[in-house]
Structures are given as C-alpha cells and as structure tokens.
Specification:
Layout (H helix, E strand, L loop, with lengths): L2 H10 L3 H6 L8 H9 L3 H7 L1 H22 L4 H32 L9
Helix pairs in contact: 3-4, 3-5, 4-5, 5-6
Length: 116
C-alpha cells in the first residue's frame, strides 16, 4: 500500500459520527481544511474547519514553549500557561461542535454542505 493509496482511503472514507448520528463531529471538514491549507487558502481552510489552524498553532506553541523551558529558570509559569492554553483549546473544540450542529439543526445552515 503506497502513501497515495493511504491518502485516497482517507479522502474517500466517511465520518462514522456523521453517518451514524447525523451530527458533525469536531473533525468533520478537517481533510478539506488541510487540503485548502496546503493549497495556500487559509480563509477557506478556516471555513471548512478552524480546528486545523488551531492545531497547527498549538503545535507551534508547544514546540516554542518547550524550547523556552530549556532557557528559563522559572518554568512553572510556562507549564501553567500551557495547561490553560490546552484547556481553552479543548473548550473551543466542544463549543465548535455544539455551534456547528446548532446551526445545522436549529437554523438549517449546513456549513459543509454534507446534509442538505
């Protein structure tokens, strides 16, 4: 199985949560967001799924804070900030999940066009 076969399987697979529960999971649209990001379209990537951009920023932040830990003597503040940052990231994922499905079922707005 080549790398391209693997990517083709990912692109053609359906979301279990979307197909079973008729809800968008927090990751729905993520593959399209990554492809848009790789194509240089940051705005379209954020429209598909802003979590992809936040995850990229999270990786950059985590690597930067790890490097800063090695240079700073008072790392407890950095660690506390990183914990709060990751907690905020998880809260955003939950709010995004609720908001996207609220728009779908209450307002009738299908952000990805997969249901309507």
């Amino acid at each position: 199985m080549s790398c391209f076969d693997f990517l083709e399987n990912i692109l053609s697979s359906e979301c279990y949560i979307r197909e079973t529960f008729r809800l968008y999971c927090p990751g729905c649209g993520g593959t399209r967001a990554v492809l848009a990001l790789l194509g240089g379209d940051i705005l379209q990537s954020a429209r598909y799924n802003p979590i992809v951009l936040l995850l990229l920023l999270d990786v950059i932040f985590t690597v930067g804070s790890r490097l800063l830990e090695k240079k700073c003597k008072n790392i407890s503040r950095i660690i506390k900030f990183r914990i709060w940052y990751h907690l905020a990231f998880l809260v955003f994922i939950g709010v995004f999940f609720l908001w996207r499905n609220y728009l779908l079922y209450v307002e009738g707005i299908d952000m990805l066009g997969d249901f309507y």
